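U., I forgot to send this yesterday:
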Amino acid sequence: MLAALGRPAELLKVAVLPLWGDKFRVNVWTAVSGAGNGIPNSFFVTADEQGTILRSQPPIRKLY
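Result:
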């Protein structure tokens, strides 16, 4: 996913939270200067058994 999105400055982690079936919430956590940590990007994705992202809302595009 980071290959498609790019690597944000101050990246802390990417959290993949299973929801149900093949649906996941993906949160990109970064350090926000003076404000602690934040989630500048969050995606609702559908993935296959190998982890390939089939759909994403919002669409994943190069941001960094």
